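Good morning,

Both structures are done.
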Amino acid sequence: MAAVKSADPYEALINALPEKPQGRCIVVGAGKASAAMAAALEAAWPEVEMQGVVVTRYGHAVPTRRIRVVEAAHPVSDAMSEVASMLMMEQVKNLSAGDCVIALISGGGSSLMALPRQGISLADKQAVNKALLKSGATIQEMNTVRKQLSDIKGGRLALAALPARVITLIISDVPGDDPQSIASGPTVADTSTPQEAQDIIHRYGLELPENVLRVLNTPRKPVTPAEITQDVRLIATPSGALAAAASVAEKMGYTPLILGDALEGESAQLGIMMAGIARSIKRHGVPVKGPAVLLSGGETTVTIGAAGAGRGGRNTEFLLSLACALKGEEGIYAIAGDSDGIDGTEDAAGAIVTPETLSRSTLDAKATLAAHDSYSYFASSGDLVITGPTLTNVNDIRAVIVL
């Protein structure tokens, strides 16, 4: 909870606001935290005339007075994702140099904004997203493909707003905090290329609609830093969330060890690796002496085979793998969850592992893990962590306690 609280949209936004604009203030945005950010901006600037549109995930809206909030689907776009994108592009038309555009960007924005390039349809984009989500591709790789197929991502929203000044406030959810990757960088110049997108498609053996492949082979000038003004401000990050968790751990008498805010790879493999580190601490006091807490963030992947999968997300898969590797070892506990409150597409943020995890369920842990059905396992053991939407998003937070 300390990690999530560190990324509270109101507190984060208040500390990063620019001078109040003199001309028109247009607000656009996308992501799981965008509605909460919009409400915070309205509260901070009650006397400023503003209008605009932001899009967030279904169930993540909050009341606003001057900024319209649209809800759309995540992680695969729907018709409202396209409607929201068109409304945002309409908001930034015909602006002047004296106008100011505030872009409120957070994780999840890539699917929540969908404005397909000419020649492809929303159904084509949906097919691409579904294929990417099953492939095991990293978030950076997925967004490289998405940008090449979009008329709003990769800086094209900022390009449409010219000559107005564009200020982008970002709550980061991606490893490395690269603004190009967060929500596919709608207001940030794009350095990716169509060839890079094609390489990713070939690397993962993705079968995509012919329309998509044809558009990727159609040259298009990228949005460069020379074309758009880039005032980009990271207002909350995964590293800040881990630091907040570490501070709480110290006060409780644990030695915190932050392993990094950008861990990637297969969720199940990370679970095995983390079990090994925890055992080393317990038995040898290496790399730190217990009682200790291993903290990490980032976005792992779950590669789904042809047989498909049950219910689950990155965090519950990591935790079930960790539990299987630990085999009920005493003195080791863990919690992991997505800071937005939703692990994948389920209603849980994540789950908890204790030495009794493998004995509390009637399901076979290894078989359930192989079927990518980790949600079902933790539901049966009573170990799911259900918070509801937190209205922020700084990616996954993992903590392994070694007594």
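Second structure follows.
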Amino acid sequence: MSHTAGALAGIRVLDISRILGGPYCGQILGDHGADVLKIEPPQGDDTRSWGPPFKDGVASYYMGLNRNKRVQHLDLSSAEGRDRLLQLLEHADVLVENFKIGTMERWGIGYDALSRRFPRLVWCRVSGFGADGPLGGLAGYDAAVQAMSGIMSVNGEAGGEPLRVGLPVVDMVTGLNAVIGVLLALQERHRSGKGQFVETTLYDSGLSLLHPHAANWFMDGRPPRRTGNAHPNIYPYDTFRTGTDPLFLAIGNDRQFATLCQVLGRPELAADERFATPGGRSTHRAALKALLEDALSGFEAASLVDRLMAANVPAAPVLDMDAALSHPHTAHRGMVVDIGKDYRGLGAPVKLSRTPATYRHAPLTPGTDFESD
């Protein structure tokens, strides 16, 4: 891939974070051209051991979060390590850290201690709950925050137990929010000439994901219930059985519903007063699902999905990981990338026309200083 300068070319990022949220932020900044130097403790980021699978003793978990960075090892608990960090901060635009709150302050290198020395530095902290308040300073973990933020309460089969989302959604959204915060602060720096403190927390990010359940609760005060794959407000927006494999329908308006009924050979369903409006379809969802699955039983899923999508009806096959990552459109969108012979990972989802993401450094690339301009 061409190494055209990215949108963040010239921005120097010191990533002293570990685990997921902070490193994910650093990787995104690196994908878009920032020079990212990752500082790890002498034993390395904990996620190097989060496997299997492993390659050359390093877990895939680590490899998925640390490309486009160069790595050096420093013991920040030592005076020598802190002195070296201060040298690096002289040339940095952004610091990303997720130490337990109070750790860097105890070492004498917290934001309050250093902000005057580095007035243009954008300091991004990723934490569990923030520094103060009833939960301030406590450690946060993705699954625990899924549990206490309400996410698990709305995830799972109808009538079943609360269920964790099957990927670290809170950690990843916190990392995305960190990227947004860094970019906002860098943009503001153009006006003021000053950096600032940016904070994203797992707790805030978990709560931010509660739409539309929170909006529903604010309006009517009714606790949401688990609905499996079905949407709480819209129907048919659910997984349905066919004559072969399941498919997912995501019908959002009357036109889409009428077209679905035509394709299925059941136009009378669109005229049924129970199903004539979005609210009616949602209210009478159990009856509607039974009627639709009866109609769908005569269809083969893959060919029906093609027909529905061609008719502008949102529908999708339910693919496993292998099928999704091997799909021709995945390749077309550049969502699987290779660096050299030993690295393969997910591509950057944000596409820019003049300054696209580039993939320059495989994980574990050594580095001792920022690259020269």
